[in-house]
Amino acid sequence: MENVRRYDLDWLRVLVFALLIIYHVGMFFVPWGWQIKNNEISKGLTYPMLFLNQWRIPILFIISGMGTCFALSRRNWWQFVKERHNRLMIPLLVGMILVIAPQVYIERLIDGSATSNYFDFYLHDYFTKEPYPAGNFSWHHLWFLPYLFIYSVVLSPVFIYFKKFPENKFITVVKHLFSKKAGLLLFLLPLLVIFIFLEPLFPVTHSLVGDWYYLSFNFVFFFYGYLFVSFKETFWQIVNQYKKRALLIGMASFTIFIITISQPEGSLQKVIYIVSKFLNLGSWIIAIFGYAAKHLNKKSTLVQYCNRAVYPFYIFHQTITVVAAYFLYDKNISIWIKFILLTVVTFGVSWLLYEVVKRFKITCVLFGIKPKKRIGNGENKTKTPYTYSI
Q1: Contact call for residues 21 and 347 (beta carbons, < 8 A)
Q2: What whole-number distance in Å separates Cα of residue 286 and Cα of residue 346?
Q3: From 41, 195, 230, 266, which residue has the greatest number of CB atoms within 10 Å?
């Protein structure tokens, strides 16, 4: 793997996580289940939320798979697994102990099962033997981290093989298929099979154990991320070539998707729903990577700063949103004023916390912030050149 920096991936990682934070703010206002709900629900927000919901998690796993390809190019198997453990499992444990508890406490206040103050709840009720939702101890929005760790460890022998034999037959054949006109559609087939056969049997729980549909579905995207980077320039040429077409297909298929979900259920409705859903998913991923490669592959001080801040922002943000929402949910204030307030508070407090934790080596380790080292003329630079994979 060539040591070439892809600044477009840095930008995408930052922008997609920013959208994730905004999405979680939006969850306060839409009908779908969440920790806390506003006293007024917005139908207008459901459409942009549905749009983001189609591709936001898949593209994060693809970017993480791409980062894994770069990370393995400079590490052996043991170094890679150790780095993944330290970067994923330590912040997960710290987050579960220190960050998630306020979310669960507010949930229990809302449902009436918590009557004590927060400190009594934390000391006596949070660390339950049974995991959430039967108990209280949970990873909530940090579910992404154990899934990513499992994928990294399980696929690491395969990736090591690909690293040693970059021109192996599998990579060569798949790369050839990818470059064909209909090749992009072939990559949707494994996802389609998983959706058809597993989604009806295993609802999404984010609990890892028993979450077979979602575990398998995102596993494929993570694997694809590694494959796409292994294709080298072929991948970037293809997404650049098809980005306009993918954008048009994405807009058309999302429109059909929205119309379809409002129709009475039936065999034809289900077929149109599935086809439009997967065309929409694949098209937006291609379009996003294509336009990012064209317009965002540029070095920037801003993206360097944001790229280092993304991980702690991810860890902190939802707790800040839920706590702030608790003080707003029953107030008779415009939905849009509440939305703006929550967004500003979430980003602002996350930024303040990041500025604090980044200044100490121990908190950098605990919250997954890559340390800086001095190079050459004294300029600060992050220790590793690739940070797309959380």
Answers
A1: yes
A2: 30
A3: 230
Instruction: Return d(Cα 323, Cα 325) in angstroms, integer.
Output: 5
DSSP-assigned letters across all residues of 203-251: ---S-STT-HHHHHHHHHHHHHHHHHHHTTHHHHHHHHHHHHHHHHHHH
Are 171 and 181 a contacting pair, CB within 8 Å?
no
User: Of 50, 107, 2, 10, which Cα lies nearest the Cα of 310?
Assistant: 10
At 217-243, the pLDDT tens digits run 999 999 999 999 999 899 999 999 999
Task: Tell me which residue of 305, 357, 387 sits closest to 91, measured CA to CA.
Answer: 357
Q: Note the pLDDT tens digit of each residue in 1-29.
A: 455 778 999 999 999 999 999 999 999 99
- 142 Cβ contact partners less than 8 Å away, ≥ 6 residues apart: 91, 92, 95, 96, 99, 100, 315
Report how far residue 301's alpha carbon sits from residue 295's, in angstroms, rounded to the nearest whole number. 16
- With tokens 């959706």, the residue in question is 195
* Three-class secondary structure of residue 137 per DSSP: strand
Residue 266 backbone dihedrals phi, psi, to 5 degrees: -175, 175
The segments of the chain whose pLDDT lies below 70 read 1-3, 373-389
Structure tokens at 190: 């494994």
Break the chain into its structural domains and give their ranges: 7-100+139-231+296-382
Q: What is the pLDDT of residue 377?
A: 46
Which of 16, 78, 8, 46 lies closest to 221, judged by CA? 16
Separation between Cα atoms, residue 21 and residue 312, nearest integer Å: 12
User: What are the E-state strand segments in the chain?
Assistant: 372-375, 379-382
Residue from 23, 65, 4 nearest 285 by CA: 65
The alpha carbon dihedral of 370, 374, 375, 379 has a sign of: positive
> What are the φ/ψ torsions at residue 57 (nearest 5 degrees)?
-75, -45
Give CA–CA dist 322/302, Å, rounded.
28
Question: Could you write out the DSSP letters of every residue in 152-181?
Answer: HHHHHHHHHHHHH-TT-HHHHHHHHHHTST
Which are the contacts of 192, defined by CB distance < 8 A and separation ≥ 6? Answer: 274, 278
Q: What is the pLDDT of residue 383?
A: 47
Smallest Cα–Cα separation from 257: which of 54, 93, 87? 54
